[in-house]
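wait is this the right file?? whatever heres the structure
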């Protein structure tokens, strides 16, 4: 039998996902004998490698795509655990009532804001500064110029584990932002790898959660209440987290859904496996 015939009989099944060992015993014995005594030309070897390359090209993107959400989920859980423990430790050190003590506006500023921020940073092991080269996007990537007043879009503190974080005292709240995989790794999107938390009245870390999904028409109406030239209220009203939202703060309220692993747009679907592309 010619090399081409052997190739068709013994190798072609691989293109359909088959395996040589799955061939019948008689055919397998024949193929084994041909491989032992026959020889392939260079062209036939290249064809075989081409088939393997095509199969690999078809399967690798799927494998990589399935891995990414799981990595982000694991990093989110780690970040949440670390932040929760840091808040507990700081509350033990500073005494109960963190929000009342450190998020009280004195008429001019939040005088004790730096103290609570530094206490949390010390627990999280800050080692440097985070710098973002890529633009940060909203949850559904409808905008690469998000606006979030209560916190920050680009966390500036680099942690020893590669994460980035920021503590911001504003609106009588102690807000914490975390980039679970750091500034240098994508997607760099609110609600996908950048999440927002706050410390409640019981000194417990809580994930921000969407309270209402505003329509585009409602957002335009909200803009009338914004400060001149700044979309502060309209961008973050309702703490948006939806593939349907065009607010520039979309992603602000995603931490809750990430924590319970539930899609904000469909309660029957998981959060991590259904991130907007």
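ok assuming it is, sequence goes like this
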């Amino acid at each position: 039998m010619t090399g081409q015939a052997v190739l068709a009989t013994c190798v072609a099944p691989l293109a359909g996902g088959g395996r040589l060992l799955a061939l019948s015993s008689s055919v397998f014995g024949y193929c084994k004998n041909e491989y032992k005594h026959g020889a392939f030309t260079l062209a036939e070897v290249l064809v075989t490698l081409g088939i393997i390359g095509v199969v690999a090209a078809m399967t690798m993107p799927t494998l990589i795509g399935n891995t990414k959400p799981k990595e982000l989920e694991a990093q989110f859980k780690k970040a949440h655990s670390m932040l929760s423990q840091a808040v507990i430790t700081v509350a033990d050190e500073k005494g109960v009532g963190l929000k009342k003590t450190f998020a009280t506006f004195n008429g001019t500023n939040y005088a004790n804001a730096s103290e609570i921020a530094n206490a949390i940073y010390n627990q999280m092991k800050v080692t440097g500064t985070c710098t973002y080269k890529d633009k940060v996007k909203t949850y559904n990537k409808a905008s690469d110029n998000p606006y979030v007043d209560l916190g920050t879009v680009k966390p500036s503190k680099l942690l020893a584990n590669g994460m980035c974080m920021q503590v911001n005292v504003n609106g009588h709240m102690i807000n914490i932002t975390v980039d679970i995989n750091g500034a240098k790794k994508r997607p760099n999107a609110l609600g996908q790898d950048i999440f927002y938390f706050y410390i409640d009245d019981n000194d417990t870390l809580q994930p921000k959660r969407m309270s209402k999904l505003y329509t585009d028409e409602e957002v335009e109406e909200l803009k009338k209440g914004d400060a001149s030239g700044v979309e502060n209220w309209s961008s973050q009203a309702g703490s948006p987290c939806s593939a349907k939202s065009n607010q520039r703060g979309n992603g602000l309220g995603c931490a809750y859904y990430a924590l319970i692993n539930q899609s904000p747009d469909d309660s029957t679907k998981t959060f991590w496996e259904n991130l907007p592309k």
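The chain has eight helices and six strands. so i think its the right one actually
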